[in-house]
What does this fold into?
Amino acid sequence: MIHPISFIKNKPELCAFVLEHGLYGFLIWDTNVGMVYPSEIATKSMGIIPHQSFPSECLLNHSGYKLDPKYKPNDSFFGRICFDPNESAGFPFHFHSKEIPVDGKSYRILALDAALKKNDENQIPIIQSEMELKSVSRLLDQMANLAKIGGWDLDLRTGKANWTNVTKRIHEVDDDFNPSVESGLQFYHSEESRTKITNAVNALLEMGTEYDLELEMVTAKGNQTWVRTIGRAEYENEKIIKIYGIIQDINDRKKWEMALASQTAILWSFVEHAPAAVAMLDQEMRYIALSQRWIEDYKIPMSKEEIIGKCHYEIFPNIDEDWKKIHSRGLSGEILKCDEDIWRPPGWEKDQVIQWEIRPWNLLSGGVGGILMFTRDITESYETKLELKHAKEVAEKSYNAKSEFLANMSHEIRTPLNGIIGYSDLLAETLVDTAFNEYAQIVKQSAHTLLNIVNDILDFSKAEAGKLQLAEEPNDLKKVILESIRIMDIQAIAKGLDIRMELDGNIPKTLMFDANRLRQVMLNLIGNALKFTEIGFIECKLERLDSGKNDEVFVRISVKDTGIGIALENQKKIFDSFTQEDFSTTRKFGGTGLGLAICRQLLNLMKSELQVSSSLGEGSEFYFVIPFRIPEIDLNLESNFSSPAREDSVAMERNSNPKGTKVLVVEDNLVNMGLMKNFIKRIVSDVIILEAENGEEAISVFQKENPNIILMDIQMPVKNGYDATVAIRSLPEGNKVPIIAVTAGIIAGEKEKCFAVGMNDYLSKPVQKENLKQILFKWL
Ligand code: ADP
It folds into this structure.
């Protein structure tokens, strides 16, 4: 048996080892002999007799190993000490072992660290509590380390202060640091932290007031860190004898908190200053966040801070059930929105129109955390929209009224003009070779001029309203231009002027365009040229330009004169409606200032632009370039292409002179009726003219008389021309008779409508003898 004292003497590493690990004492093991010494705690804890020596066969079970001399277990292991090789029971322990040479001999020290199971409670009560205390304090130590919690105290009687290791580590001071109240306080650099801790320590020392603070400090190594520090007082006979506390490194948490706080602040300021009413609510409809606009839009008499945490229904106690339903749908995960919601907030004098959207927001852990509400007060824009809509309706109404007025006016003015023109024609024919013929001619001319002005105004109004439409058809360009020149030639000759024509041979004969409208432009331009020229000539020129395409040609058309010219500064404004070069023009030359404006609009429809180049006193040139489409059918090859204007009326007159023909004239205006009858009698000999004042009469006359042709007015009382045509077409024999529309033709789509209801042809008012003749010969 080795004496422990001599054994342990001068063996500080052994002491340290045992002290560190040997909660339950220790055993000294001679590798040759066996256990040579059990410490007193070890004997108690293992239930062995003190100072009993064990034979070397004594076994240490450890996963089937014996502790024999060769067995050198490592630093720590679990096992049992057994006295009998057959015995499997024994006290289970956690061992730490170390080999230590003493006086040339090798010993193994087994430190019993922890009993794993208590076999006999009575035998080891002291050790147990000792062990627990030790293990608890070690646990505390470990926890303190892990949690970075250090302790400190200050004995006021001795003035001695203590810092635990962790406290020193937090402050990054050396182990031999000498703590005191003053030295402790000097780690707090910032004004705020220094003041807080100083006041707290003073209050603790003087009155025992506890403190719990989170402060920023700077360690001995100059590192900035955050700590939580708690201070308390210990009393004896109502006197403070000691102050103590803990200090915890909370730098990581604080940094994280601060980052979070700054993120939250960013989010907050975003919501707060959002230029819309936004609110975030939780599952109980309590406010979490809201924008300033929310308060303003809903006129909530509270501050943001007062609103937060309050229930939405507490703030709006009168909110209706519909809204509550919408909210609860949002809270169950639905996204809802409305672009125009009109409601009357309680206490308001007028409706509010809002646009709103409600969508759920989700918790990190999943599930709906509440709702986000977004609303926008669109009352103002809604009202503006309504006003605009109303204004538009009014404008449309007045526009419709204007169109109607124009249509009516056209009818009303054209009807008497029809009479004037027609009868002055007849008059002139009757009064040949008398002085009255000249008067009749003048009346006729004036009526024509008046008709042209009316037509101009109507055209212009239609163009302004965007109702002017082109009827593009394959037409002979050269022919249309020549026709225009021929019409104006009489005036030119009268003025002693010559109208020349220069034609580019490269222009295809047939092109797609609205012949009437192009003729209108040419007549206007040539008319102006004649009007403003006294000496010289007028030249119409057609020039082909390269379009770069196969199915399109560009043609530059110009009308040049040697007249008075236009001052440069006036060249732009003459294209405006009702504008002339200067006011003297009207006095000298007459005119309405509409012609060029209409030309410009018509040319725009033809994807062209009217331009002018002119110098005062030398003359003017009006020109434009039209992109013409080349049609697939060529007029030259298309022999059966028919157009009344193109047929030779003289030839027709020769080959057929219908006798005993019945012509039904449907016309409500007596003057026009008389005129038509007169014309017809002059065109067709041996004719029976039947009359009807309206559509209704026309039908019955048709049934009785079965006429060869019907000339049908459109606008009539009782039954109009369209309805009458439809009715006649449905009668037996009714689809054989040619029905010719006779109309003012100012209403858009009128011509198309005539064909759609089953009419065969179209005659424009005022009816001219020549046109009527062509139509009659064509259809009889
Ligand atoms: P109107 O001829 O009815 O007055 P226009 O619109 O046709 O209206 O023409 C507007 C004005 O442009 C004319 O009044 C005249 O001052 C000027 N103008 C037009 N054509 C010519 C031209 N060939 N030579 C000189 N001035 C012209």
